[in-house]
Amino acid sequence: MLIHVAAGAVVDPEGRVLIAQRPPQAHQGGLWEFPGGKLERSETPEQALARELAEELGIKIAACRPLIRVEHDYADRRVLLDVYRVDAYEGMPVGREGQPLAWLEPWAMDPAQFPAADRPIITALRLPSLYLITGPDPTDPDDFLRRLGLALETGIKLVQLRAHDLPDADFSRLVRGAYPICRAVCARLLLNRDPEAVTDLPCDGLHLSARRLRGLGERPDAPSRLVGASCHDAEELRLAESLSLDYALLSPVKPTASHPWAPALGWNGFATLVASARLPVYALGGLGPNDQDRCFPHGGQGIAAISGLWPNAGRGRAAADSGRRS
Predict the structure, then answer these.
(1) Which CATH class is domain 2-112?
(2) Domain map of the chain by residue range?
(3) What is the helix (H) or strand (E) element at residue 320, kind and residue range?
(4) Topology of domain 130-323, per CATH?
(5) What is the pLDDT of residues 54-87, one digit of tens each?
(6) Which of 5, 164, 177, 188 sits a CA distance of 20 to 30 A from 65?
């Protein structure tokens, strides 16, 4: 039997998220969770969430959006969680059923203290909605780093450094230039390179190509770092899940000039693949910041882009302002 649940990640102005402790006698009793509950007959997930948050916390939702959908099979039951990010609400949250409440930043949450089905929610909360993939391999490192700085001025907090054609020594120098620029604005830098070749380089995580993903038998050894991968179909998404990766890029959603031979998924195809995924998935391929509102209802974590987020050679700060949503 599948139990359908609507849950809310209620976020305060400081970025903290409200969590509640399950009663000791309940399933997964004593663990912390995101408030919500089972859908009643004929309810939509949004209706159920509004009802549950009013009953459990005494608040009324003013603004929310889909965050992630998670299906999990426990030994004694299967659950499907439709999770929404609640960014505005009316009222003061209180535990109306006597449940303890706490406000925590996502990075302060210990996944071991949550039910297994809730753990991908923590990952989704830790990830931004815009993901920059750096532009063409740099022939001028100074200009490359200047463009990176311009992109970060728009508020981007997650960057994949992609420079496949650079020799290892040049790539290393580029990383050592890019890392402090990212660190200065609290952005995380991920390296798209052979994991064995970057063990000594400063970074916040790794990104795996689909080819590297298919060649792995276990998650790369990167303690406390993000690890994600490029995926193009259901098989690669399942492989990313089996390796306990933190996210996936799924492409191409739209036709792209760089891969004109690759059939586009379209938003419906993207949504179909994401619906069975158990990790946050970014939409990639012919997209930009303005596509976020289409991405969220289709189950995406957000938008990943190269040309849609990477400044052109002559692009200034004013032209980059379109990417300020994250």
Answers:
(1) alpha beta
(2) 2-112, 130-323
(3) helix 317-320
(4) TIM Barrel (3.20.20)
(5) 999 999 999 999 999 998 888 888 999 999 999 9
(6) 188
